[in-house]
Design a protein that fits this description.
alpha+beta, Jelly Rolls, 5-stranded antiparallel beta sheet
Length: 137
C-alpha cells in the first residue's frame, strides 16, 4: 500500500532550516502504519531534505560550511542567463538532494537519538513550499 500526503511550509528564505520530524511522525501515526518506508521529498530545485541534529550550534556550523564550499557572490552561469541572484541556491540544493528515505519500525520513524528530518531553504527569498510525504508498506 502507498499513502501520500502533502506538507505545506513557509520558509523565511535563504538558509532557513525547518524541523519536519514531528509533522512527518504525525502523518505516520494518522495513517496507522506499523512498518514500512517513509519518503520525504521537496518539490523545489532550490531546497533540500536531510537529517541533522537540530541544535543551533550545528545549524550555524552547517550554514558556514555551505558558505565556504558554495559561496554567494562568485560567477554562476545560471546568473548570467537568468539574473535572479540564486545560482548558488541551485548548486547548494543539487549538492545535497531533494529527498530522504527513513524506515518506519513499530509505528515510528527509525531515527537515532539526535537525528531530525529537516527542510533546508536555499532560495534568496521567503517561499511557500510543498513537501511530499509518501509511506510505502
Amino acid at each position: 500500500m502507498i499513502i501520500t500526503r502533502e506538507l505545506k511550509i513557509s520558509s523565511r528564505g535563504e538558509l532557513d532550516v525547518i524541523n519536519l520530524t514531528d509533522k512527518v511522525d504525525d502523518i505516520i501515526k494518522e495513517a496507522n502504519v506499523r512498518n514500512g518506508l517513509c519518503i520525504i521529498f521537496s518539490r523545489s530545485s532550490t531546497s533540500a531534505i536531510t537529517i541533522i541534529e537540530f541544535e543551533q550550534g550545528l545549524i550555524e556550523d552547517f550554514k558556514r560550511y555551505l558558505e565556504r564550499t558554495i559561496p554567494k557572490g562568485i560567477d554562476y552561469e545560471h546568473e548570467k542567463k537568468w539574473h535572479d541572484g540564486n545560482g548558488h541556491s541551485h548548486v547548494r540544493a543539487s549538492s545535497l538532494k531533494p529527498d530522504l528515505c527513513v524506515p518506519i519500525v513499530n509505528g515510528s520513524l527509525a531515527l537515532g537519538t539526535w537525528q531530525q528530518i529537516v527542510f533546508l531553504e536555499f532560495d534568496i527569498r521567503p517561499r511557500e513550499r510543498t513537501i511530499i510525504v509518501q509511506i510505502i508498506t
